[in-house]
Amino acid sequence: MSKEIKDAVKRTYTNVVKSGTDCCVGSSCCNPPIQDWTISENYEELEGYEKEADYALGCGIPTNGAQIKQGDTVLDLGSGAGNDVFVARSLVGEKGHVVGVDMTEAMIEKANQNKQKLGYQNVEFILGEIENLPIQDNTIDVAISNCVLNLVPDKYRAYSEVYRVLKPKGHFSMSDIVLKGELPKGILEASEMYAGCISGAMQKEDYLEAIKKAGFKNLKITKEQEIKLPDELLLQYATPEELEDFKKGTNSIISIGVYAEK
Question: Per the confidence metrics, is the pTM higher than 0.85?
């Protein structure tokens, strides 16, 4: 199942690059096509923002509250076309360094094209998987990620890798999707919804427990906001009865920000 999920995610995000549009949830490059719709937040007022690097694939702004300082070495997990990397670069300054890791070849290629166009010397993009980061131990001051950890099949393994590469007293700031209650079975089993940031999401309590189990301390939830998915999207994967039951209960899909320290 892990390989199947990763292949689906790679296909989805390769299509994003080829089409030049977002595909996180409900874009025309997904299958089946649904109205354009995103759970991303607006970056346009942020220093370092580059429109060509933003495919609206996230669910927050992980650099907000990440306490990134001048001279820091920052790691962006699932860096895509470089959106959060370039924002982080504006915070670390010329003496800092920002590394982006992504498992999709097309995204790495696009990110390097953006880097070359901008002429930045202190950012780099590396092909790799979060569950096996191509980064040395104890070398990162701050790790960030935007709606990516929920795409990783083994969350504990992923957070253990983040813990390994962070320096002593380093920390992370993640934006992600979690669940309260249960999603309809069709949504949970749909690879398109996995690649779209939803069906790979864990129960909130289990997600936070995976972080603690990996060794992190001083965990804080910095943002918590319920996401309302359009009925026409959900009805692609759930029956009307399942959707009604989902909406009647205490079930919800939540965008959260999480901060924790090594």
Answer: yes
